[in-house]
Known about the structure:
2 domains, six-stranded parallel β-sheet, alpha/beta, 16 helices, binds uridine-5'-diphosphate-xylopyranose, 13% strand, Rossmann fold
Amino acid sequence: MKVCVIGTGYVGLVSGVCFAEIGNTVFCVDKDKDKIELLKAGKVPIYEEGLAELIKKNIKNGNLVFHTDTSSGIKESDIIFICVGTPPLPSGKPNLSAIDEVAKLIGQSINGYKIILNKSTVPIGTAKRIKKIIKENQNDGNKNYDFDIVSNPEFLKEGEAVKDAFFPERIVIGSESKKAIEIMKKLYEPIINQDFGYAVNNTNKRDKVPILLTDSTSAELIKYASNAFLATKISFVNEIANICERVGANILDVTYGMGLDSRIGSRFMKAGIGWGGSCFPKDVRALSYTTEEYGSPASILNAVIQVNNYQIFKVVQKAMDMLGIIDDKIIGVLGLSFKPNTNDTREAPSVIIINKFLELGAEVRVYDPIVKEYPENMDKGAIMSASPYRAVKGANLMVLVTEWSEFYDLDFKKVKSLMANCNILDGRNILDRQKLQKMGFKYAGIGY
Ligand code: UDX
């Protein structure tokens, strides 16, 4: 099929490449000229395993075309994917101006039956809003052309996005149109049946993927509710971690014991510095906003946010416990991205923690294996270091904020010889506490 993907962010790029790889012709369009030029040259602005290779391969075989002319992309395609951003406004309400702009353009450009597919995470009711805007913008020349709206939320995780696109755990299709649902089933057929050639890390998983057919509003809510539930799991575990510290229990044993109950499960149960990223903070706030807007209490959702804010602050408090006064101390921070295997620092707890250390008068040295530029909101007073060892040289405290694999096997003899004081605050509970304590480090984790 001919597919136009509007917006080349995480969701757009990964979905576009995936549908190109399974044999469709995909036009990836973005109004950002510089970005499109980079992509045409096979250069990928985000770090995602396997993505650059797939982009190059599909540009070469003609399945993937990048350009800036959204209108012609719409005209040439049967299915239009809307993958533009919905960043939060200060109230928590998502900003839909990019979606509205695209819907307007679709209305002006439509030249035959099309499926308009929404992959962006959008507030409840957006499918209806898009339909209205498209209709309003159809003109005398094209007002007779029919179209259907489909809500097809994306569940990919950053750092594993390519794998998630090819091997999803479910496909959710929300539409009021039987015709559109049949076309969507056809588009997704290779993914549903798992009968395409692509493999990631020798993944042999070839079970059929469940497809859920529902109305567009339910599809929109499935996405928000899933992210909010996952964030709830983490906030819950973080709250239990804080109780553990008070009563002398061990969060690692507690979560392991809880997870053995299959109704609870062992995944997404890691206590730490709190959740961040481009999705959870935005989506939990948006769902809370919508819940209250429709006159329902958002008690759990608001508590989930509150616990997370406290958790980030708790890391600073722990640093104070270890250092006494922070002023004039040197703190080496390991990790900047909101989680490993991505260069994304949007709403990363690391940034809030680093800014707070600087505000309290510390000298902060930061090392991240991939992030080499200052995140937008990070105080430029922090010093970017070229290696984890440079970051901890002369430091009074090392704070591990992102569980990058290279931090698991640091040379701690070297770390010890470099640090002014052997204090380690492990914000992800990944280091071997006993070994470090034996070596003479003062170690603090989260909840044990
Ligand atoms: C999330 C959802 O998982 C994905 O389905 C959705 O499409 C987008 O949002 P992502 O933002 O990439 O994906 O990150 P995820 O791996 O879910 O982690 C989110 C945050 O939770 C990170 O800050 C991570 O460090 C934190 N986390 C995760 C924990 O603190 N503990 C855990 O056990 C798991």
